[in-house]
Each structure stands twice: as structure tokens, then as C-alpha cells.
What we know:
The structure is a single chain. By secondary structure, this protein is of the alpha+beta class. The protein folds into three domains: about 1-30; about 60-125; about 145-255, Histidine kinase-like ATPase, C-terminal domain (Heat Shock Protein 90), CATH 3.30.565. About 70% of the residues lie in helices and about 15% in strands. The chain has helices spanning about 1-95, 100-120, 125-145, 165-185, 215-220, 225-235, and strands spanning about 150-155, 190-195, 200-205, 235-245, 250-255. It has a five-stranded mixed β-sheet with strand order 1-2-3-5-4, with helices on one face. Helix 2 runs antiparallel to helix 3 and helix 3 runs parallel beside helix 4 (about 165-185). The longest helix is centred in the N-terminal third of the chain and has 92 residues, at about 1-95. The model has no long low-confidence stretch (mean pLDDT about 75).
Amino acid sequence: MLDNDIVLTVIVTTLLILLLIAGVIITMVLANRRHVQQEVKMAQMQVEYEKELRAVENEVQEQTMTNVARELHDNIGQLLTLLRLQLEQEKLDDSVFAGRLAPVDNTLSDTIDQVRLLSHSLNTDHLEKQGLVYAIEKEVDRLSKLKRLKVQWTTDGNEPPFDKGRRIMVFRMMQEVLNNALKHSGAKNIHISMNNTNGFRLEIKDDGRGFDKEKALADGKGSGLHNLAKRAKLSGLALEIDSNAGKGSIFTFTENT
């Protein structure tokens, strides 16, 4: 009888220990699950916060650019046009100076065109009305008239189904890539292509000196690349950079699937 009591006690004790262990394990699993869920929630909140912050920054930046664009168009543009009218009058009043003033007149005419195109480039209201394809065509026109390099532009003609905020982000990122190419790459040719037949794809390719992407990111000089990739991610796009020293650069933006 005593042996049976001992066996029963051992069994009960073992079961209690197992139940205790199981309880501890379940508690740890639930706690870990809550911790993971909390981390996921915090990460989502961080992403949403960054999106909202970026949206506010973009709104302020775009409003500033719109004000500058209007100032260029309404004031600077009008003053340059008035100056050209005065120059034309001088040419009519004195035919002797007409030939000498012709180069000045041509330069002034080009300046007026550049101010108009720059104003159009800074003001993104047309993105909402006429779309991304139209905006890029105008930017290509502006760059081509600078005569610093040749710009090729191809598209399938399909307008991406983006809202205005997303179109602005894509347009500004493209401008940043183009501006860096003009300043640093020494490129003679740039090819821009955008297609939306089988998902969005924007590619900007130049034949400049290129750069070592890994080295740029490692030595702290790639903050612009980090920011560009971050902005692309917040826009729901993936950014791929293919560049090597002496072999030009290719920036490709595709929609995340």
C-alpha cells in the first residue's frame, strides 16, 4: 500500500511539474508573441509617422517651390520680356546697332525660355492636371535646351495610376538623379524611359564616369543615395542602382509587388 502511495505521489508530482513547465512555456510564448506584435505595431507606427512627416515636408517644399515658380513667371519673366521689348525698340530706332545687338537679343530670348521652363519645372500643379508623362516631357525639354548634354526620352504612353503626392515624389526623385548627373557625372548622354504596361518602371541611364556604389555608401558619402532609397520606399517603390567607375550609372525605380 505504501508503495502505491509513493508511486501515486511521484506521478502527481511529475504531472504538476509538467503542468508548471507547460504553463511557464505557454506564458513565455504568449509574452514573446505580444512582444513581437508590439514591435510590429511600433514598426508600422514608425513607417506611418515617417510617411506623414514626409508628406508634411513635401507639402511645405512644394508650396515653397510653387511660390518661387510664380515669382519667376509673374515678376522675373515679365521684367525679362520688358527688357527684350526695350531692346527691340532700340534696334528699330538705330539700325546701326541692330546687328551688334542680335547676339544679346538671342541670349535674352534663351534666358526667357529657360526661366519659363524652370518655373514650369518647379510648379507641380500640372502633375495633377496633365500627369507624370507630360511633366517629364517638359523636364526633358528644359534639359535639352541647356545644351549641356543630349537627353533621350521614351515611354509607352501609359500614365501611372498614382495620386498627386506619389507623382510629385517620383518626379522630384527623377529630378534629383538628373541634377546629380549634370553636376557630377560628366555625362554626354542621358536616356530616360518610363513604362507602365506591366507595372511601373522608370529608368534613368547616363554615360558618365559612374561611381563605386559600395564605397560611396561605406565612406559616408552616400547619404544622398540613402535618402533617395528611403524616399522611394516611402513612395512604395524599389530603387536599384547599377554603377561602376568609368561605366556610367543606371537608376531604376519599380513598383513594389
